[in-house]
Amino acid sequence: MGSQKLQKSQKVRLFPTTQSHRTGESAPVSGVYWVEHSKHIARREVYVHQGIHFPACPRCGEALEFRLVEQVAPISEDPDFS
Ligand SMILES: [Zn+2]
Q: Ligand 1 centre from 17 Cα, in Å?
C-alpha cells in the first residue's frame, strides 16, 4: 500500500471481466458495460438494461463489443426497495 503509481508500461486492459458481448446479443444482466469503438465512440461506460439488444454503431453500423463492468439492479428490482 502507499504507492499509487500506475504501471503504465504494462498495457493491461482494465476490463474487469473477460466475457464480452457483441452487437445483437441481449444483455444477460442489467449493469454498466464498457463499450469501445475507436472510429466513432470514445470508450465509455454505459448502462444497459437486462434483455436489451446491444446496438451497433449508429454511424457506421459496425458491430461493437461490450463488457460488463458492474452489475447494477434497477431500483424496481432491488429487494430493499420493493
Ligand atoms: Zn462506427
A: 24
